[in-house]
Request: fold
Amino acid sequence: MNTLQKRLFGSKEGLLGTLFLALILVVVLPLTLDIFRLNLMGKYLTYAFVAVGLVLLWGNAGVLSLGQGVFFGLGGYCMAMFLKLEASDPITTKIQSTPGIPDFMDWNQITALPAFWVPFKSFPFATLAILIVPAVIAYVVGAAMFKRRVGGVYFAVITQAIALIVSLGIDGNQGLTGGRNGITDLRTLLGWDIRTTFGQYTLYFTSVALLLGVIMLSRWVLSSKMGRILNAMSEKEDRVRFSGYDVSDFKIFIFCLAAMISGIGGAMFVLQVGFISPSLVGIVPSIEMVIFAAVGGKRSLLGAVYGTLLVNTGKSLFSETFPQLWLYAMGGLFILVVVLMPNGLAGLWDDYAKPWLHGAKKRLMERPPVDVGETKSNAPLAKII
Amino acid sequence: MSSNTDYLLAIEDLTVSFDGFKAVDSLNLYLDQNELRVIIGPNGAGKTTVLDLICGKTRATSGSVKFKNREMLGMPEHSIVRSGIGRKFQTPSIYENLTVYENLEVSFPRGRGVFGALTFKTTTEVEQRIQSVAETTFLQDYLHTEGAFLSHGQKQWLEIGMLLMQEPELMMLDEPVAGMSPAEREQTAELLKRISADRSILVIEHDMEFVSRIAKKVTVLHLGKILAEGSMDEIHNNQMVQDVYLGH
Reply:
């Protein structure tokens, strides 16, 4: 296998795993689900971006953030602002007292578009903002925390507080942000209707493609020396520091990358669901994202996707039947995973399914057992599948 | 401010106090190029604190630490390391989840910035360094073993190897033979002699038998101050040192 392939997919097993996930997302789900359920899956996939970011940040660098919903929300709001401006052309909004501005602004007696909304009329600007805004905010928070060596539980609590502040801030500024209702009634992207069946299929496949791209990018990062340093740092931070690395730079970098990835997820969410509100930014969604990653396996990029899809499918099936019990089930699930399977579904796969498959393959070949030994040389790469 | 010297490391009037307690009290210590110095002293004498002060882990209250006539106090840890000071911790501090090879690779002094680390390539030069350091530290047969599966002594060697990867001009070792078998101690003494040929080494050690095997010059610390300094024989016959160690 050539080097680039190795850097993008990990071992041969990682390549097969990625292809298998692609097969499920591109072929199996679209063929077996109706468009309503598939659109739901597309929505869950946008959460998987955040979970993949958490695999980088929490699983590999050992930095737990309980505020990733903020970055998901920032990406989402950047997209929603562009779509809302497109939906608020003067003709459609001519019954407003100020035509041409978003309806919620008109309801709040705002008579001119606020300055920070103006650049979001441009699609290239909005696209750039989806990537840059979450990263810049992450940089500011990260630099303030990590340079001062705030870490561990303190960092987790502070990020949680930030999630609360941001969601309250959006909530409380109705005229500027749409407040608690969020930004709703989004219709077209550059004149192309996002609500049609064709539109929803297209957006679903776009999400899948972006998610697979993000997974490969993440694997490329983890398979570089950066990945080893992040793992080393989560284990013995002082040793890394006294090997001449500025530990805070590495934490800031991975925090920004995770934020950027989460922002892409948020933007795809808005396109598929058609709205964004502060309820997707605050504490609860931020913690749910951590549970998705934990269930999938906090060190496994592919596991994060499976974890997100399974927990959310479970959530919608379960809450359709027993709406009150869902939160308890979610809490119970988290405790179960943390106590019984610290490496989540990916851990179960590595510990049980893989040895069994290995044995089955051996039995099939009907050869006297030869001790080939695990291919040790691939071990470090195999770990990050 | 102190003047320039020929010493590799010149510590002058170094003091650190924790809530009024002076763990290190106006310490003066000079280290030559290619010198191997051993610091001994009873528990709480401030030995580890001195190393912490030199490498920036603890901030000094006052004084000066000059390495190659450059003031080290106030510099961030990674800059101190990059200027040529390596530090081994008391309990072996290696990456248990990484193999011996990866432990050494991470310690190679290139690609230390974020973007350097993303684009770092393990060239043949790096491979050769890893190979030769592994041989020096008796680990050539364990390159693909994960750190967690090494014996305690091997972990100590690996950490020394990780320092060697950085080619520091000054190596500070905090109790390098703690937890080692007699045979391993003997090997470690050989190892230190070999690697001290082209660098200075500062060792903290409790094991007197080991100290007498490696030391040319010994510094005795007591209550944050230097009690005595000299050859092993001089230290042995020093009445004050005997009193301190016998607890008078």
Q: What stands out?
A: Chain B has a mean pLDDT of 90. Chain B has one domain: 9-246. Residues 152-165 of chain B form the longest helix (14 residues). The CA atoms of residues 56 and 77 of chain B lie 5 Å apart.
